[in-house]
Design a protein that fits this description.
CATH superfamily of the largest domain in chain A: P-loop containing nucleotide triphosphate hydrolases
Number of domains of chain B: 2
Order of helices and strands of chain B: HHEEEHHEEEEEEEEEEEEEEEEEHHH
Largest sheet of chain B: 10 strands, mixed
Radius of gyration of chain A: 19 Å
Mean pLDDT of chain B: 92
Order of helices and strands of chain A: HEEEHEEHEEHHEHEHHEEEHH
Shape of chain B: globular
Number of strands of chain A: 12
Distance between the termini of chain B: 32 Å
Strand content of chain A: 25-35%
Mean pLDDT of chain A: 88
CATH class of the largest domain in chain A: Alpha Beta
Number of helices of chain B: 7
Low-confidence stretches of chain A: 263-269
Shape of chain A: globular
Strand order of the largest sheet of chain A: 6-9-10-3-11-12
Structural class of chain A: alpha/beta
Largest sheet of chain A: 6 strands, mixed
Oligomer: heterodimer
Distance between the termini of chain A: 21 Å
Radius of gyration of chain B: 20 Å
Chain lengths: 269, 390
């Protein structure tokens, strides 16, 4: 058995040479990725490089047509599974611009999707400072930052094994960014807990995997990502530590990634 | 299309004759099937959640009781006799020569109900009035008068339903509402008709100084040919009218439903809100605000959701200003369910059907004041059933 075979088997989530068209145009041009249990992968890339398309197509949304490649979750081929079945298996996504749903209260949706009710919801809502939205129509009149918090509430209650977060810091003011960061750590089972005798193994078992798209990298000040990737023009052109990528992009922009690519990349992922 | 011929009914399709029905002491004496049919029109046969009840079966008034000191319920004939022809109210809100249906009721002098809350009484707990048709192909005419006297509050649930043997029929209902100085009238009408029914309500409200009229209309069951355009005339200073309508048109249904508010009194305010869903039927959702006095305020909102290719929703909002310096507005939106909403809910684990049903339920959940808990629950269930059936 080779090392890569072992990785295949232990990987929670595998994308294999994924090609995706949006409105007749190929946006993803062969993306491959493996994510193990509890791993956080940060995605970087300029606007229009296909980051959001990647999340939306692995979640199975209708406007994203998969023209080639496969997606596996816990070894099961989910490439053409309906969105809700992916959610039920343990995949969750936070929406950038979620729709307003009139006449449906946020609390009601959380109850349906998490199958819990009452105090647990109120407690988490209090932590996220979204209690006042619970009995309002879903996303009705919410600001960008409020939407982020309401989305995190839903995801924490839904408790998926892998979470897709699209620019969780965008539209969030400075005052709230640490709140968002802390909520994401809760969501991903990485919140520093008081010593309670858990072994490292037990702590690891509580961790959720994630793909986090970040444009600015701000969120990584609050969140410890395990791996980083740069997506440009529908392809992953670089695997590196999130810190290295952030540092390089901040100093020299994505142009450097392209130049770097020409020289073979810094593939140490 | 010429409106007259479009809505013309062939009276030869209907019979005027129905057997005389015996009086019942209690709505609990009805058969289980009838109780269930009435229940779906908002009528609680146990009367536990109601203060008084009126039931007309075909052309016979079979039950009439009020459990409130603050209100009385009489059959129309009894009220005409007791109150010397009800001169103050009889054909004063609705014009008897308005159309063939008003003329028909005028010449037939049919039954119906007279409900009145006494001056200053607070009858918040609803009274219920039911117009029930048990004979197939019957033409049922009724003439109702509702009066909320000065300073009183009155809440009425009015249910219309047809019996298990009924396929078609005609219901012509005149209702004249009088909301006197400082009074509040909440009137909720729920229709549960047989599929081939033709329905012609003709009603109007007169609202005096400082008075409030709230009309709720709910029709979630198919109706082959429903046409109505109730009017509230805000005569009084600071008078208020609100119309809420919830309509669901199944294939084969045709609902032409509007609400009109005439804003005449100084400081009058009017709101018309409607939610229409077509699962394949036709809905014409009308609304008309007529402003006659400076300073009045009114808003009209009409939203439609089409869930089937063959469905049709035609929103016709009208604003008519007859003076300067008034504020009237409208918004209308008609369309199908946004796929983004469905996918959003699916990402939370709901199936496509569950997501659609939840969105429709939300769409129809107008926050309607004055509904008792049992009726609210019943409506939720009806909407849920309809949503699930799609």
């Amino acid at each position: 058995m080779t090392v890569s075979d072992i990785e295949e088997k232990t990987s929670l989530f595998v994308i294999d040479d994924l090609h995706v068209e949006v409105a007749g145009r190929e946006v993803l041009k062969g993306v491959s990725l493996q994510i193990g249990e509890g791993e956080i992968h940060a995605f970087f890339g300029p606007n229009g490089s296909g980051k959001t398309t990647l999340l939306n197509s692995i979640m199975g949304f209708g406007n994203y047509r998969i023209t080639g490649g496969k997606i596996y979750f816990r070894g099961k081929d989910i490439t053409h599974l309906p969105v809700n079945e992916r959610a039920t298996l343990g995949m969750g996504i936070s929406f950038q611009r979620p729709p307003t749903i009139k006449g449906v209260k946020l609390r009601h949706l959380v109850e349906i999707s998490s199958k819990v009710s009452g105090e647990d919801i109120d407690r988490t809502a209090a932590m996220l400072n979204v209690e006042e939205f619970l009995d309002r129509d879903i996303n009705d009149g919410l600001s960008g930052g409020e939407i982020k918090r309401a989305e995190l509430l839903q995801l924490i209650m839904q408790s998926p094994s892998i979470v897709f977060l699209d620019e969780p810091e965008s539209g969030v003011d400075l005052e709230n960014i640490s709140l968002i960061g802390s909520a994401i750590n809760t969501l991903l089972g990485r919140k520093p807990e008081p010593e309670n005798g858990m072994t490292l193994k037990e702590k690891r078992a509580r961790r959720k995997a994630a793909i986090v798209i970040t444009h600015t990298g701000h969120i990584l000040e609050y969140l410890e990502a395990d791996r980083g990737h740069v997506l440009i023009d529908g392809k992953i052109i670089c695997h590196a530590t999130p810190g290295d990528i952030l540092h390089t992009v901040r100093a020299r922009g994505y142009g450097e990634c392209q130049r770097c690519l020409c020289e073979g990349g810094i593939d140490n992922g | 299309m010429d409106k007259k011929t479009e809505y013309q009914l062939d009276m030869a399709d209907y019979t005027e004759d129905a057997p005389e029905h015996e009086k019942i002491r209690d709505l609990g004496d009805l058969s289980d099937i009838e109780k269930k049919l009435l229940h779906m029109a908002g009528i609680d046969a146990s009367s536990r959640e109601r203060l008084g009840s009126f039931l007309q079966k075909d052309n016979s008034v079979v039950h009439c009781s009020s459990g409130s000191d603050g209100a009385e319920i009489l059959s129309t004939s009894a009220a005409l006799e007791k109150y010397d022809g009800l001169k103050k109210y009889w054909w004063k809100a609705v014009e008897k020569t308005r159309d063939e249906y008003t003329s028909r009721v005028d010449s037939h002098r049919p039954e119906g109900y007279f409900i009145r809350s006494f001056k200053g009484a607070n009858v918040r707990y609803p009274l219920q009035a039911c117009l029930y048709m048990s004979e197939d192909r019957l033409a049922q005419d009724v003439h109702n008068i509702v009066v909320a006297e000065e300073g009183s509050t009155l809440n009425i649930i009015s249910g219309c339903a047809t019996g298990p043997e009924v396929r078609s029929g005609l219901h012509v209902g005149i209702t004249e509402y009088y909301v006197e100085k400082g009074a509040t009238l909440i009137f909720t009408m729920v229709h549960n008709w047989a599929e081939d029914m033709a329905v012609r309500p003709r009603s109007a409200a007169v609202v005096e100084d400082g008075a409030t009229f709230i009309s709720n209309y709910i029709c979630l069951k198919p109706a082959k040919d429903l046409q109505m355009y109730p009017t509230a005339v805000l005569e009084g200073k600071d008078s208020v009218a609100t119309f809420n309508s919830i309509l669901m048109a199944a294939p084969g249904s045709r609902m032409d439903v509007g609400s009109r508010v005439i804003l005449r009194g100084e400081g009058a305010r009017g709101d018309i809100l409607s939610r229409a869903v077509s699962t394949g039927g036709q809905i014409i959702a009308r609304g008309h605000l007529l402003g006659e006095t400076p300073g009045i305020k009114a808003h009209l909102e009409c939203q439609g959701l089409i869930l089937a290719d063959k469905g049709l929703i035609h929103a016709i909002p009208e604003l008519e200003a007859r003076t300067e310096d008034l504020e009237m507005s409208h918004e209308a939106a008609v369309g199908k369910i946004d796929q983004a909403e469905i996918e959003y809910l699916m990402a939370r684990g709901l199936s496509e059907e569950e997501a659609t049903s939840l969105i429709v339920k939300g769409f129809l959940s107008l926050d309607i004041p004055g509904l008792p808990e049992d009726l609210r629950k019943e409506l939720d269930e009806m909407v849920e059933k309809t949503g699930n059936a799609m």
